[in-house]
Design brief:
Bound molecules: cytidine-5'-monophosphate, magnesium ion
Strand order of the largest sheet: 4-1-7-5-6
CATH class: Alpha Beta
Largest sheet: 5 strands, mixed
Radius of gyration: 16 Å
Low-confidence stretches: none
CATH topology: 60s Ribosomal Protein L30, Chain: A
Number of helices: 5
Structural class: alpha+beta
CATH architecture: 2-Layer Sandwich
Number of domains: 1
Oligomer: single chain
Number of strands: 7
Shape: globular
CATH superfamily: 2-C-methyl-D-erythritol 2,4-cyclodiphosphate synthase
Length: about 160
Amino acid sequence: MADRRLAPFRVGQGWDTHRIEPGRPLILGGIHVPSEFGLAGHSDADVLFHAVTDAILGALALGDIGMHFPDSAPEWKGADSIRFLQHAVSLAKGKGYRVVQIDSTIILERPKLKEFRARIRESLARAAGLEIEDVSVKFKTAEKVGPVGEGLSCEAQAVVFLTLI
Ligand code: C5P
Ligand code: MG
């Protein structure tokens, strides 16, 4: 069989959701956002890093975050989610691709996140090995509708673009 030529680029999307839990730290894109509640989860529950990690795995058709980092495994309890993201970036490299652009959205009713945009972009860019100009982080409320709107949960969505190294 002839060698299958690698596509010049690949695209992936990711989505994640976590329940809001009082007393937990709120970690978004590796940044601690002051809040009386955080997100429930086996790891540090960084919903943005999880969505971006899934987007990269999706671009490579390598399954999803739970396949690579099962939440039943004790080694991932309380884990810093930057490790998941960096692992996905290294898998991309192993397949001959690099991440060149990330667009993302965090959907959370409160607190207001826009004052943290620069820090979150910078942190996500550093984690993924990108320049800040190539990383977008948007924020939306859910207009008080549904679990996010009622303040029960937080969601994140991400799209990534990969090119051949
Ligand atoms: O959801 P909505 O369109 O009402 O959001 C208005 C603006 O508020 C957004 O453009 C976003 O920058 C900001 N926002 C925020 N923190 C949130 C939700 C929205 O800073 N948790
Ligand atoms: Mg998650």
